[in-house]
Predict the structure.
Amino acid sequence: MMKLVVPALLAAAAQAAPSTRDCCQSLAAFLPSIYIGPSTAEYDRLITARWSITSMQHPGCVMTPASAKDMSSIVEILSAQQCQFAVKSGGHNPNPGFNNIDNGVSIDLRGLNSTSLAHDRSHVSLGTGLSWGDAYAAFQKDKIAFTGGICEDVGVGGLAVGGGQSLFQAGKGWVVDNVIDYEVVLASGQIVHANQNTNSDLYKALKGGSTNFGIVTKVDLAAFDFDEMWGGQLLLALSGPESGHAQTIETITNATVDFVAENHSDLDSGIQIVATYLRNGTRVVDVALSNTANIANPPALQPFLKLPNQIRDTSRHASLAELAHETSLAIPRGFRYVTASVTVSNDKDTLLDFWKAVDGVYDGLTVKDRIDWLVSVVPQPQIQQTHAKSRGGNVLGLENVEQDQLVLWLVSRWNDASLDSTMEDARQKFIDAAVSVGQKHGTYSPFIYLNYASPKQDPLCGYGAENFAFMKTVAKKYDPFGVFQRLQPGGFKLSQVQCA
């Protein structure tokens, strides 16, 4: 390992920052095999390989580490020279600057794509540059699975430190609750492991604390025997003379709240509701159905399977990779996206008023013919929070939640950059409307799912004062000079928020 980091250098906050050109020249000199400079075909390919065009920027150079040792060397140089940088795993966060940077150094993790299965089949090891689709496919022949992302092109790295929704949520908890070990490169360039026995404070902080402590290069996830599951997409009409928009929404709402309330009695079944309003005027609801025990048409999902106005039902026995692929089709690459997230208790009146409120936001838009508007209801049954404790806890702040909850998630897309400001305003109106409804009914929760959050939201504060203070202590311990606070500006940073 190169010994380039000089503590005095890092401590000198007043030191003039070097130019991006100087930083890239140093990286090219020391690490030429993983350096990609501008004005090359590979550079152009990497900077345009984005899920959301809103995250497209122009770094001074791109580094493509293939090992933790590579990452260590990169971080040493960046730290010593005080170079600003960004890190991209799957790049599925549309917020500008969160996984990319103008003029700084972009670290693309796609070379960290290793996979391995423990001899006793108890866990898998995944490089953080993998997509979840590739990770699932890698172990399909072994008939093994693990908790991971719902969409195939989401990256392992970001999800594994942001919380992590999965199809196994009720029965196994958040993705972070299934991480056995993190391999992490610290600001000093040191490669450490974080688990229940070693660096246990860092281990807990990473489980929801995101990019505040180091760069995770590999995760070990608890694994289990698994072949296929049952699931698919049930598409319902919301527009047209026969659809009965309000009645259909009310029927779906009743079925959703009842399902979540009883989810503890069938941990294998799951749903996600996605209302989609397309620019051509079509309005549909997509009910994503799943049963991880591979039981077709389970009793818990019968109220959804009997819903009227069905257009298409793709439910079948399929692999985890196949279902992750199908889910990704609803939010394809190549658009401009905004996202936001609000959490409320599982309550029928709240959910009905929420649909009315966000319909009002959408109907008030003057650009409906140029955008697609997707609003999801993601169940968070209380039982899923009980899985954290057995592996050292997490920092999400949900361990004492006594009621079932719902994450209300906006994803909107468009093509024309001139609409960016309009859609950012619409996102804020969505947040305000959802929060207002929750407060009106006394069901609002301060928890904000970080991986779905708007850049103007403060998900780290939503974890609670105790967890926020804990994360700040851990960050100071493992990154005493604030490298990941100052030099990696993207993402939700502990140093940039003041919690009320």
